[in-house]
Amino acid sequence: MPTDLIIVLEKARHRDKTVVTFGFDYDQKVIEQVKQVAGARWGQTMGCWYVPEGQLDLHAFFESLKGMAFIDYSGLKQERKKPPKKEKVIKGERLSLSIGRPREANPLPSVLSKPEIQQIITKCSNIKHKCILSLIYSAGLRRSELIHLRPTDIDSQRGLIRIEGAKGKKDRYSLLSAPLLLQLRAYFKRYKPQTWLFEGPGAGHAVQPDKHCENFT
């Protein structure tokens, strides 16, 4: 007897009842074994043998067809049901609460130490880039505040940096250190900025922050 014959067991509705059907190619010996199953009948409308649900002994059926056919009973496996939503009754009203997944961890970013930042600034050979990094670090400037600085915002006499339209659309001052002032003077002599403290390639245009960020990555 060839063992490449496959019997497929599936659930179906027949005469308003759930039954288990036997699907296989015609084989007289297999038919004789199916007939031995308690409650097995031929379904004329379905064109296959069937047995009422709950009456099929799978283990005994497997043993009776051992070596004669492969039995595919995946159609009998029950699907996992989704857990019901939790409901809560408040003052006679039923509320349906959908419980979501727990939030993913949100670790803090790594922060560079003071020596690491100083090392980055020291290794920067371009005076313009060095001034940009030094201003952001020592004066605590945001990127948008940096690119909108004008040469007149640098008060070398009082050692201050004027920042217009900072957070909350408010003006503020930040300290200008002596080493940074020396760097800015060297930068002024070389680049001679006119409209903006840090200008881009075109005259009168502020520096493009994304373009310069590529030089620091």
Your description of this structure?
This protein is of the alpha+beta class and 217 residues long. The chain has two domains: 6-75, 3-Layer(aba) Sandwich (MutS, DNA mismatch repair protein, domain I); 114-216, Intergrase catalytic core (hpI Integrase, Chain A). The chain is built from seven helices and ten strands. The protein has a five-stranded mixed β-sheet with strand order 3-4-2-1-5, with no helix packed on it. Strand 3 (41-43) and strand 4 form a beta hairpin. Helix 4 (127-138) runs antiparallel to helix 6 (178-191). The chain is rod-shaped. The two termini are 72 Å apart.
Task: List the keywords.
3-stranded antiparallel sheet, MutS, DNA mismatch repair protein, domain I, 2 domains, 217 residues, alpha+beta, hpI Integrase, Chain A
Instruction: Classify the secondary structure makeup into a structural class.
Output: alpha+beta
Shape: rod-shaped
Q: What's the level 1 CATH class of the largest domain?
A: Mainly Alpha
Q: End-to-end distance, in Å?
A: 72 Å
Total helical elements:
7
In sequence order, what are the helices and strands, one letter per element? EEHEEHEEEHHHEEEHH
CATH architecture annotation of the largest domain: Orthogonal Bundle
Number of strand segments: 10
Topology:
Blueprint: E1 6-14, E2 17-23, H1 28-35, E3 41-43, E4 48-52, H2 58-64, E5 70-75, E6 86-90, E7 93-97, H3 114-123, H4 127-138, H5 143-147, E8 154-155, E9 160-163, E10 172-175, H6 178-191, H7 209-213
Parallel strand pairs: 1-5
Antiparallel strand pairs: 1-2, 2-4, 3-4, 6-7, 8-9, 9-10
Q: What's the short story on this structure?
A:
The protein is of the alpha+beta class and 217 residues long. The chain is 28% helix and 23% strand.
